[in-house]
Amino acid sequence: MAQININGQTFPAKADQTVLDVCEQNGIEIPTLCHIKELMPSGACRMCVVEVEGAQNLVPSCSYPATDGMVIKTHSDRALQARKTIIELLQTNHPDDCLYCVRSGSCDLQELSQDYGVRQRRFANNSPEQHLDVSSPALERDPAKCILCGKCVRVCEEVMGVSAIDFAGRGSNATVSTPFNVGLNVSSCISCGQCISVCPTGALRESSSLKPVTNALKDPEKTVVVQHAPAVSVSLAEEFGLKPGLDVNGLLVAALRRLGFKYVFDTSFSADLTIMEEASELVHRVQNNGALPMFTSCSPGWIKYMEQSHPDMLDHLSSCKSPQQMMGALIKNVFAESYSLNPKDIYSVSVMPCTAKKFEAQRPEMGDGTGPDIDSVLTTRELARLIRAHGIAFDKLKPEVADTPFGERSGAGKIFGSSGGVIEAALRTAHYLITGTELNDPNLKMLRGSEGIREAVVDVQGLPVGVAVVSGVKHAEQLIQEVRDGRKDLHFIEVMTCPGGCINGGGQPLHHDPVRVKARAAALYKIDEGAPVRVSHANPEIQELYAEYLGEPLGEKSHHLLHTHYSARETQF
Amino acid sequence: MEHLIIPDLDPILKRYPDPNREHLIPLLQDVQEEQGYLSKESIGVISRHLEVSPAKIYGVATFYNQFRFSPLGRYHIMVCRGTACHVKGSANVLAAICSGLKIQPGETTRDGLFSLEVVACIGACGLAPLISVNGEYHAGVTPAKIKRILNSYRKREEIHANG
Prior knowledge:
The structure holds 2 protein chains of 2 kinds. By secondary structure, chain A is of the alpha/beta class. Chain A folds into 3 domains: 74 residues, Roll (Ubiquitin-like (UB roll)); 117 residues, Alpha-Beta Plaits; 352 residues, Rossmann fold (3-Layer(aba) Sandwich). Chain A has 19 helices and 17 strands. In chain A, the strands form 5 sheets. Chain A has a 5-stranded mixed beta sheet with strand order 2-1-5-3-4, with helices on both faces. In chain A, β7 and β8 form a beta hairpin. Chain A starts with a strand and ends in an 11-residue tail after the last helix. The model of chain A has no long low-confidence stretch (mean pLDDT 94). Chain B contains 7 helices and 4 strands; from the N terminus they run ααααβααβββα. The mean pLDDT of chain B is 91. Chains A and B meet through β7 of A and α3 and α4 of B.
C-alpha cells in the first residue's frame, strides 16, 4: 500500500484513490464545487487545488491519483491564495443578492466566501443580462447565478440519462442551457430535481408554492387539507439538525396542525390504496393477457419520460394514479362528501420529497374538470421553510397522530418511499389476491438495495412472477429495450425516477449524500418491520373505504377516481 | 407549441449510416450547407439519428462560430472585426448595424431581409473598416454610412418587388 505525506503526517493510500479521497478519509477537508462523489472527477472548478512537492503547478486533488511517496500541502499559503482568487473570480459573474436568495445559508459559494474571508467584490460584474426560466411548473432556472460547475449537466446526463441541459456557447459566453435556450417546460426535462440537489448555488431551485399555500391558510373560506408522503417523515429531521434517518412522523403531523392545516392525512394511506388497485390490475393483466410487463406509475418523472421517449409503450404503464393523486381525488370527493364540504372550498396541499409532483399535480387529467385535485405541492425543503417562518420549534413539539379517514397506513404503504418498496408492497397483496393467503415472509429482501436494476422471481403458488426494480430512470432504458426485443419472463417492473427512490427525491433536504439516503431507507424498513399491519389489504381504513364507498378494486368508482390515462407527449426536444 | 415540421435530411443522413457521435460535426456542416442554418427540427432529427441528446448537439454547435441557428437573410452582412478594422472603429460600425436592424450577430431580421455575421478578417485591411453584403464590399464605412447602405438595399428590394 502506498504511503503519502499530507501536511506532515503520513497516511496509507489505496491504488485507485485520489488525493482528495485520502484527505477526506483522514479528516482533512478540501473544498470542492464541481465534484460529485460517485461520478468521475471533472476537475473543472479548481477549488480543490493542493501543493504537491516537485510539481510546478498546483494540482486538483479530486482527479490527482495518490501515489507512493507524495508530499502534499493542502492548506499552504499558495493553495489558499489560489482558492480565494477562484472564489473572487466566480463572484465576478455572480449577483450580490444573497439576502433575497432561496439558497442563502445553504449556498456553497457563499460558505466558501465566508471561509476564505472574501470581504469585497474584487472585479466588477459585467456579465450579460440573463433571463430567469420560470416556464416549468416544477423548477426554476436562474442562469445569472450559475457558476458553470457542470454538476447539473452531469447529473442530468450521467445519473438520470435525460440530458435536458448542457453547456452551450464558448469561453466567457458559455452557459448551461437547454437546446436553443427553450423553456424547461418544452424541453425533455422530467422535473426530477436531481440538478437542484447538486447545484452549489441558487441557479436551480424548485418553483415555490409557499405563497399560494400561506394565502390559503389565511383564507377563512377555505378548508385547508394536507397530506404528507412516506419519504418526508424520515428526511425532514435533517432540516432541523436532527439525525439523518430519524422518523419524525408525529412531530410532522403536529407541525402541520400548528401551521393551520385543518386535516392532516398520510399519503402512505393512499399508497396502500394504490397497492390495492395496482396489485389487482397486475392480477387482471396476467389473467386476461393484458400488456406485460406492467410498469409502476407512481413516479411522475418516469411517466413523462415514457410519454416523450416511448409513447408506443404507454399501455405497459399501470393506469393507477400515484398515491398523491389518489389522495387528491379522495379528498375532493369522498372526504368532501362525508364532511359536507363543497370541493371548491377545499384547498388541498401535499408535502412531497419530489419536484416532479408539482408537475404531476397540474396535469389536466388530475382533476374533475372544475379544478385540480391537488392545489399546491410543497417539497420537504419548502415545508421546513414554512415551519421556520412560523416560529415553530420543531424538536420541542409533542407527537400527534394523523386524521381519519385517510390517516392510517400499513407498513407496506410506508416503504413506498424507497426503491423496491412499491413492488414489495404490491407482491404482498398480489400474493393474497391470487392465493388467499399471506406470504410466509413479508420481507422480500432480494428487492431491496441500491443497484440500478434488481430482478427476482417470486413464487406465487407455483406461478413464477418475474419482477424487476429500477432505481433511477436511466436504467429503465435497458429493460425497455429487452422488452422490445421480446423478453417475456418479466411481469411487473417498478421504476423510481430518482436513484434510491423518493427518499433521494429532488425535493429532499439539500446536498446529495449517499450515507443520508441509506439512513432514510433503513428508517422506512424499520417502520415497516415494527408496523402492526404490514400488508395494504389489511389496513382497516382501506377495507372500510372499499366497503362503504368504492366497492371493489378496479370497480367503476375506482376507475373514475383512482385511474388515469397517458398520452404521447411532443417536446421540442 | 409551434408545430414541428420534420425536414427531410435522409439524403444527408445516408452518408453517415452508422450512428457514431464522431460524425456529428461533418453532419452539422452538411445540414447547414443544404439548409443554410441549423433549425430546431434538424437538430432533433440529427439527435435521433446519432443518439446524442439535442442539448449536447446544441452545445457543440454553439461552440463553433461557423454554425448558425436562423436562416440567412436575403442580404447577408459580414462585418470584419479584424485588428485593422477594430482600430478604425469597426465596433461602432457593428453597433450601428445591430441597432439599425434590431438584431444581434448570428440573427436574421424578422422580415428575412438581412442577416448579420461577425468575421475575423476579410483580408482587405487597407480598406478598413470593411463590411461585405452578399459579396459586395463597402470600404471605409462609418455608422453614418451604414444607414445609407442599409437603405440602399431596402430600396433595391422595393424595386425588385414592384418590378
